[in-house]
Amino acid sequence: LSVTSPSCPRGLILASLVRQVDLILTYTQDPQILVQLVSRCHRLYDVTLRVLGVHALDDDTLEGLRQAHTASMPTPIRSLSLMMCGVQSPLLYQLLSVWPTIRFLRLGAELAAPLPAQPTQVQLYELILHRTLPPRVMEWLLRSSANSLRIFDCHAAPSTEYDPLVAQFSENLLSLRLFRHTQRSMALIRRCPNLRELVITQLSSFLPLGELPMTLEHLSFRSLSTVTTIPLTPIISAVDKLPRL
Description:
By secondary structure, the chain is α/β, with parallel strands linked by helices. Helix content is 28%, strand content 20%. It has eight helices and nine strands. It has a nine-stranded parallel β-sheet, with no helix packed on it. The N and C termini lie far apart (48 Å).
């Protein structure tokens, strides 16, 4: 509350030190609260948003966010997590248009909104997907990230229709994090020859691990300790073949 109160000097001093915020924005709130927040927290690095009942930001709010972004230089917002919003909401497109400096993006909601007329200029370093995006949205989102994307984290490995897009960034990936070990995830791993890190949360009890990139330095199976049916022999064999692990 003190961050959004211009009459509280101590609040403004504290706001200048804030690097990360987690905000729930609902239809009962004035969206200008977001403008006030990022304006006063001028060293803000990471924003997490959960948006309920708000389809889109109005023009005044967007202009306020643009002005706050300009004023934040040379320490602009770099990380955005949009965890909740409407499926047809253009919020992601709006936020990336006013915060083109985003490098780390996490999406927790399904997105099917019509694409904006203008392509995005955002160059992502990390993309975390809790839901699979339609191919057209993925293509728009990664339009300028073919040479910059280094970390890709997805709940489900992209299907074959994403192959042309994956081919644009897979060789540059350093970290691949997948939830399930499937035939598709194995195919995706084979497309990433320069990985330094591979994380698989749920390892299969019957699929072979397959050949892994020799460049790996970190290999993790997150739920292995809770699955007693997974044989350890293929894992030990894979580890023995990785000289940089």
